Amino acid sequence: MTRILDSIESPEQLRALTTEQMQQLAEEIRREIIEKVSVKGGHLAPNLGVVELTMALHYVFDTPKDLLVWDIGHQAYVHKLLTGRRDRFHTIRQFGGLSGYLRREESPYDVFGASHASTSISAALGLAAARDLRGEQSKVVAIIGDGALTGGMALEAINNAGSLKKNLIVVLNDNEKSISDNVGAIHHYLGKVRQMQTSRSYQRLREMAKGSIEKLPVVGDKAREAAGRAEMSFKNFVLHSKSGMIFEELGFKFFGPFDGHDIPLLLDVFENIKQIEGPVMVQVVTKKGKGWEYAEEDSTKWHGPGAFDYTTGIIKKNAADPPTYTDIFAKTLVNLAEEDTSIVGITAAMAEGTGLKKMHQCLPERYFDVGIAEQHAVTFAAGLAVGGMRPVVAIYSTFMQRAYDQVIHDVCMQDLHVVFAMDRAGIVGEDGPTQHGVFDIAFMRAIPNM
Q1: First CA to last CA across the chain, in angstroms?
Q2: Is residue 396 included in any domain, yes or no?
Q3: CA-CA-CA-CA torsion sign (104, 373, 295, 432)
Q4: How far is residue 153's CA from residue 124's CA, in Å, rounded to a whole number?
Q5: Beta carbons within 8 Å of 294's beta carbon, 6+ residues apart
Q6: What pLDDT is stored for residue 318 in this prediction?
Q7: Is 288 an active-site residue?
Q8: Could you say which of 61, 80, 288, 360 would form a disulfide bridge with 49 (CB–CB 3.0 to 4.6 Å)?
Q9: Are both 137 and 279 inside the same structural domain?
Q10: pLDDT tens digits for 246-273?
Q11: pLDDT digits 0-9 by tens, 336-369
């Protein structure tokens, strides 16, 4: 039987499909990703979670004229399959093959080639400003996860976008995950939004209000405006938010949450959203690992696995392999912390990758996950050091670049006792140049007091 996927060379073919055909295509895409990633490894669970969302975006928006900016880009496998790279998909993350992230030189559909978190809204806002200065009409869409939204850069961009009032759409892919479980106040706030707007009482009251307004002889702009104000008041009341809906207070029109796996719903939502002027944020709720039971049960384990048997869900490992540097660091840190009660561990949303998960399990009161916030992590550690603790900051080498000012100004200039445990130093292979840790010795040795 011929697959629909084999006929998709660009989003133009996607837009010719019926809803039923799109449902079938979603299943085929998931199967393709699982089978191909099982051979060499790669980012699995993030991509299984955005299949319908990616299809809907390419269906509704006129890509590549309309611009999709993906945060990080590790969840862009579906995007690659839909934009003329299906025949090379088996080469992903291999020498001479497709990048595991987005690369502008790889395709005109890859608008912005970043692969560190929280950058998409800034880049999209810049593209929107450039569009307006050039007198163009394209739509600009940033797709960012709720984990990346904890990054300060994303919040800085939201603040700026709310004041510039550019036509910009931000799709918040809310799967309650970054790599591990999300942390922090923003994560809990979004959970309250999900809970409130999907509750039966909220939906029942909303439908009652909508029905009452529709019974009026004339439903004009003033009536609709009044209905909107009433709904907003109810949202604020239920959320107990002193400053109202946080994103709307910052200048965005906020819609959602919507089911990120409901294709007809997503098509309808995006068709309506793209008509709205000014900055808009749309919250879609997805399940990381969707469609493959092993990844649904443990999306952290299956975030970026190595080769595996997709029929059994067993990751292929050599039992004779020696422990990794990360394993040794994790065990040693816990041993030292058990002897010295002043030692604390800090990670920026990378408990698994840095090995600090072991400290979380053994000494949870001295473990801190600050979210995707490397700058904050370093200055937080500086504060702990001033307070008499001995902080160990475990961050990937490539991500430490984001906190260089804090290392110089807040730690080294004050000659504070902070230990930096920089994982993934050197060439990291399959993940490509944006993940290499090749500058750490040069930029850290140059700092006085280091």
Answers
A1: 63
A2: yes
A3: positive
A4: 13
A5: 302, 313
A6: 75
A7: yes
A8: 288
A9: yes
A10: 898 899 999 989 999 999 999 999 999 9
A11: 999 999 999 999 999 999 999 999 999 999 999 9
CATH number at residue 52: 3.40.50.970
Domain that holds residue 153: 4-308
pLDDT, residue 241, reads 42
pTM of the model: 0.83
Question: Annotated catalytic, 156?
Answer: no
Does residue 253 sit in the same domain as residue 329? no
289 and 337 both lie in a single domain: no
Query: Which one of 32, 52, 176, 374 is the catalytic residue?
Result: 374
Do 268 and 373 reside in the same domain of the chain?
no
374 is a catalytic site residue: yes
Q: Using the structure block, give the residue that is written with the tokens 């809310």.
A: 174
The low-confidence residues of the chain, meaning pLDDT below 70, are 177-244
Given the structure tokens 């100004």, which residue do they identify? 409
Q: Which of 80, 288, 366, 424 is catalytic?
A: 288
